[in-house]
Write a structure and sequence with these properties.
The structure is a homodimer. Chain A has a two-stranded antiparallel sheet. Chain A is globular. In chain A, 69% of the residues lie in helices and 1% in strands. Chain A has 15 helices and two strands. Chain A is mainly α. In chain A, strand 1 and strand 2 form a beta hairpin. The interface between A and B is large, with 41 and 41 residues.
C-alpha cells in the first residue's frame, strides 16, 4: 500500500471512530456542576484532536476479538471468551482520551504553551488555577469511566492497574522532560527513557487495555502493549520532527517551539553530538521574537547535520518493531489497520 | 468521658496509627526515579500531619471486624466473611492519606499558601511546575496502592470506584471554594455543599472503604460513609473556627488567613447575615500587612455577632448525627473510638 492510500485508509478509520468518540463525549463527561470547572475540563476535548489513542484502543479490541472493523457497537462489544456480558469498549477509549487531555492541560501550564488544537490553552482561556483543577477532575473522571466498562471484576481491576501505572509513568516522563531543559546535554538513552514514560506508555495502555478488558490471552495482551509502546515512541520522535518542519498554521502552534523553549529532543541531541551549537541556533527565547528566516536557518543546520534524517530512521525502526509484535494476533482486517496506523504515525505531515 | 481524657485517648489512638503509617511510608511510596519529583511528592507527607484519615480508616476496619484496637497486623487484616485471604488495610489507609496530600499540594498553589505543616509548601520549596506534577504523581500512586489491598476483585473495584468519585468531588469542592472568593455572598447551603465535596467526602471514603474491602454488609458500609461525611463537615467548620482563634505558631500558618484571603466560611456568612461588613474587617490583603491587633479586633467582631458560636453549634450537631449512624455497628472498643474521634475533631485546639 502506498503512503497516500495508507493515509486515506487510516484517516478514514480514525475519522469514523473520532465521530463515535465525539458523539458520546457529553454522555461520558457531561457538563456537570460546577459548570465552569467542567467547561474548562472539556475545553481541550471539545477543541478537537485526532483521537488516535481511542482509535487504537477500539481497533485493537476489534483485532483481538476477530471483529471486522466498525461492525459492532463499541458500547456493547463482544468478548474473547464466549458467554460473557458485553463490554463498553467506548468507555475505555474515552478514559484514555481523557487522560491524554488531562496531561495536555497540565503540560501547557508548565511549558506555558498558550495555544492547543488551534484554541487557547485552558490556563489562557480560563486561568492557571482552573486549569490545574480541570486536569485533576479529568484524572479521576478517567478512572470513573474506565470502571464502568462492565468487564468482569478481575479484568476491570487489571485495566485500572494499567491505567494508574501509566499515569505515574506519564508524570515521571514529564518531570524528566522539564528537568532536561535545565541540563547541558541529555544522552539518547535518557531522552528515549523520557519519551517512553511521557508518551509511549499511553499508546501501550491504549493497545493493551482492550485486550485486558475483552479477555485476550496474556501473550496477545503483552504483544499489543509492546506494539503500542514502540509506535508511541515513534510518534513522539515524529512529533519532534514535525515541530521543526511543519508551518505554524498547520501545527496549530508556533513552529520550532521546542527549539525556542530549549527542549531536548533526539534531534538536538544528535546535532550536539555532531558538533552543532544547538543552544545558539535560536537567539530569542520568546516565540514572537523569532523570525521565519531564523527558524529556517536553524532547521537547515539540523538537516545538514543529518539529525532530522537520524530521527526519521529511528522512528521507522521503532514502527517496524511494533508491527512485528502483532504477528501473534489473528490475521484480520483490524490487525492490518493497526499495522497501517503504526506506519501512518511516522508518515503524517501534521 | 471528659474532654481531656477523650483527647488523651484519641491522641494515643492516632499517635500509634500515625507511627505505623509513617514507618511504612517509604515502603508504599519509595523515593523512585526521578528523585526530585518523588522528593516533592513526599515533601508534605514527610513534613508530618496528624494522619486523622488513615486512623479513621484503620479504626473503622477494626470496628466492622470486631477486632480489639491495635491487636492485628494492618497489612494482613482479617475480613468479615470467614475464609478469605487477609487484606492490606494499611495500603488503603496510605492511599487515602496520599490523596489528601495531593489535594494539599495543588490547593496550596491555587491559594498561594506558602507554609504547610510548619514547612514551606511544595510550590515554594520546589516550584509550581514541580508541585503540579508532584500532586499528579500522588494521584495515580494512591490508585496504584489502593489496588494492592489484596481484596477480592469485586470489592477492590468498589473501593477504587469510591476513591475515584471522591477525588472528583474534591475537585468540584475546591472549584466552588475558589469561585466563592469572587462572589459577594454565599448561602449557607452553598457553603455546606462546598465543604461536603471538598472535605467531607474524603472522611466518608476513609470510613467506608475499609468496610468495602473487608466485606462488611451494605447497611454497615453506608452507615460508616454517613458517619465520615458528618464528622468531615464538622471537621472543616471547626478548622474555620481554629483559623480565627488559634495563634499562628500553633496553626503552622498565618492566623486568620481565610479572612485575609477573603475566603467565604460559615462564620463569615453568618456574620454577613447579622449585618457585619465582613469584607472591611481586614484592610490588607497580604498576611505581612495585617497586625495582631487588627486580627484581634476582627475576631472580636465575629464573636460579638455570635458567628463563631453558631459555627461551633453546627459542628456539634453534625458530630452527634455522625455518631448516631454508628449504632448499626457491633458494640466494641473500636466503635467507641470512632465516636470519640468524632467528638475530638471539634474539641481539638489545633
Amino acid at each position: 500500500m502506498d503512503p497516500e492510500a495508507r493515509a486515506r485508509t487510516v484517516e478514514d478509520a480514525v475519522a469514523s471512530r473520532r465521530e463515535v468518540v465525539n458523539e458520546h463525549l457529553d454522555t461520558y463527561l457531561p457538563l456537570a456542576d460546577p459548570e465552569r470547572l467542567y467547561e474548562a475540563s472539556r475545553h481541550v476535548l471539545k477543541a478537537g484532536g485526532k483521537r488516535l489513542r481511542p482509535t487504537i484502543l477500539l481497533v485493537a479490541g476489534e483485532a483481538v476479538t476477530d471483529t471486522p472493523p466498525g461492525t459492532e457497537d463499541y458500547q456493547s462489544f463482544p468478548t474473547v471468551p464466549e458467554g460473557e456480558g458485553p463490554i463498553d469498549l467506548l468507555a475505555a477509549a474515552m478514559s484514555v482520551e481523557i487522560i491524554q487531555s488531562f496531561t495536555l492541560i497540565h503540560d501547557d501550564i508548565m511549558d506555558d504553551d498558550r495555544m492547543r488544537r488551534g484554541e487557547e490553552a485552558v490556563h489562557v482561556a480560563f486561568d492557571a488555577d482552573t486549569a490545574i483543577l480541570a486536569g485533576d477532575t479529568l484524572y479521576s473522571k478517567a478512572f470513573e469511566i474506565m470502571l464502568d466498562s462492565g468487564a468482569p471484576a478481575d479484568r476491570g481491576l487489571d485495566a485500572l492497574d494499567r491505567l494508574a501505572s501509566t499515569c505515574t509513568f506519564i508524570c515521571e516522563g514529564q518531570s524528566l522532560d522539564v528537568t532536561f531543559e535545565e541540563r547541558e546535554s541529555v544522552s539518547s538513552e535518557e531522552y528515549m527513557d523520557m519519551v517512553d514514560r511521557k508518551t509511549a506508555v499511553l499508546y501501550a495502555a491504549a493497545a493493551e487495555i482492550p485486550a485486558i478488558l475483552l479477555g485476550a490471552d496474556g501473550e496477545t495482551t503483552a504483544a499489543l502493549g509492546k506494539y503500542g509502546r514502540s509506535i508511541g515512541k515513534a510518534f513522539q520522535i515524529h512529533d519532534d520532527v514535525l515541530d521543526l518542519t511543519t508551518p505554524s498554521e498547520t501545527l496549530g502552534k508556533q513552529r520550532g517551539s521546542d527549539l525556542i523553549e530549549g527542549k531536548r529532543t533526539i534531534i538536538t541531541q544528535h546535532a550536539r553530538e555532531q558538533g552543532v551549537a544547538v543552544d545558539e541556533l535560536i537567539t530569542g527565547s520568546e516565540p514572537e521574537s523569532v523570525t521565519d528566516a531564523e527558524m529556517d536557518a536553524a532547521v537547515a543546520t539540523l538537516e545538514e547535520a543529518g539529525s532530522i534524517e537520524y530521527a526519521r530512521n529511528l522512528a521507522e525502526e521503532l514502527v517496524a518493531e511494533g508491527i512485528q509484535e502483532l504477528e501473534v494476533l489473528p490475521r484480520n482486517e483490524a490487525r492490518d489497520r493497526l499495522e497501517q496506523i503504526g506506519t501512518y504515525l511516522i508518515e503524517r505531515s501534521y
